[in-house]
Description:
- This protein is of the alpha+beta class.
- It is built from five helices and eight strands, in the order H-H-E-H-E-E-E-E-E-E-H-H-E.
- The chain has two domains: 40-106; 108-226, Protein of unknown function DUF881 (Alpha-Beta Plaits, 2-Layer Sandwich).
- The model has no long low-confidence stretch (mean pLDDT 81).
Amino acid sequence: MKKKRKGSHVIFSFVFLVLGFIVSFAYQIAREDKEKPKISDSQFERDLALRNELIAQEKKNNDLEQQLKKSQTKLVSYEKELSNEAKKFSVLASEAKDYRMYVGKVPVKGEGISVTLEDGDYIPNNENVNNYLVHEHHIFQVVNELYVAGAEAISINGQRLSRDSYIICNGPVIEVDGYQHPAPFVITAIGDYNVLADALNIAGGIKDLLVNENVKFTLEKKTAIQMDALIGR
């Protein structure tokens, strides 16, 4: 009997110990909650407003980021278009420069060749003297061949030719755009001198044709030739 009471006493002691611990712990929790500063309504509203403002700002930032991406895409497209336009303008500018050079509106310089055409040295008494003179068609043949070979500019005895120049015979002289020039006739052309020279010297070409017609033909390559722009044309 004494042993039973002693066991019950131990159990009750343990239960009371646990209850005491629980009560102490609950009291401590309640005390800490009580000591914590309470958030006022105004502070809560302010925190809520700040939170909402932050959310709104994040949304605005996202929207701006999307707009930036779209703007960057458009910018890339515009840059591509401008690049294409720049290429077109560059081509047009180059073509305009070539055209102005061709019509003689701008001075031009570069390498090229000089071709001298002279009357034949020996003129037999029983032959027509015209068969030994340089005529306008001889000059035309040289000029045309030079243009075909890529000459950028051509002059005759220092007078630059234009897109509508004319050459005619007038007795012992030739007339270029109304200006008379006596023999010998020096035809100067600016361009790749190797190409221009080869075009005239080709077998059976212009040089051989003129020599067969008793015209003295002299060709000289030049590294530097300069021609002024035409004035008043």
